[in-house]
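To assess whether ligand presence alters the predicted conformation, the chain was also submitted together with zinc ion. Input:
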Amino acid sequence: MTGAVLDGETVGVRCADGLIEAIGPEVTPQPGGETIDAAGAPLVAALVNGHTHAAMTLFRGYAGDLPLIRWLREKVWPVEARLEPDDVYWGTRLACAEMIRTGTARFWDMYWHPQATARAVEDAGLRAHIGGPLLDVGADSPHELREAALRDVEALAEFGPTIDTSLAPHSIYTVSEGLMRWAAEQAAERELPLHIHLSETEQEVADCLEAHGERPAAYLDRLGALGERTVLAHGVWLDRAELDLIAERGATVVANPVANLKLAVGGVLPYAAARHAGVAVGLGTDGAGSNDSLDLLSDLKTFALLQRHASGDATVLPAAEAMEIATGARAPGLLDGAGPPGAAPGRLVPGAPADFLLLRRDAPELGIGDLASDLVYAASGSVVDTTVVAGRVLMRGGEVEGEAEILARAAERARRLGIA
Ligand SMILES: [Zn+2]
């Protein structure tokens, strides 16, 4: 690629084997390779969606006016019990198309039929960390459930280099103590991440205190489930001691501000306290059933505004820092070791994953002022012109090839499930 503008400087980028081979003003295209003329477009790192349930695009616009627990128990879980792999495949393809269009290269997913998710992600060209949800509250056959989880882990390991495997115990209120311990042991033994919802509602904290006499982060830690490969979604009600513990263990917390607002949980991750404690923080959309968009830039604005509003402090989250949260630069655990040794995570440097965006040169939202500030407060994902993931051009000119057909197939699957 030639003629891109990175931090005010015109640069070329050369990619090989999914990585950035060279980047800088002196870099010229390699003869014979595919070349993009960026023609002065701003170049930025691609975004990382730290928590979602991609196939839940099928649930978009379905029963959205209920509180979390009723929404799950009465509306979502009964339909999910009827899901087939092809439902998950097309729901995930639709999510991937939206993520490509709005600049996300990598996402953390927790959903049923994880192999169908992996197929969809590979076909779309994105990267994902995938885990099938583990839930055993009221389950009759915990042994079979564990066997099935391990079969999924082994099957996911057979996919290509853009697919990473995780274990995904759903939450402390849907997973028994025994199953959580088992998941933590398996994750440690296999060096896999643990991806879990934590401290989303105040009720979850109250129930945990009543059942175990300790708050959710301390409870997880006692079960061996809080470590540097743990990714905690939400963290709305974490207190100071929990944030200190999470920082000490090196776990990551992913804020999902729009899902928190939509489900009216009463707050959002306390970012200033998390940063003060030294917690690694990322940003997620959560599933399209509870957001309902996968446009991470748009959620970044909501996150930044909520932090300013809640703290009464307009300096609490500078725009450049907010962009680092959205690209995973403040949560190395979300990038899972991607990038050259010693380099800061999420930076476009030689040896880093070739995951980057060209922004529309003619976007009025970006035409004047500081780029990071414009991206956080003025833009949405519609300013993305070109999305490159693992060195492959997945979108050029703001349109994802085949999106109309993908939408038609996903809508057909939602109708089959009786939710559209
Ligand atoms: Zn979630």
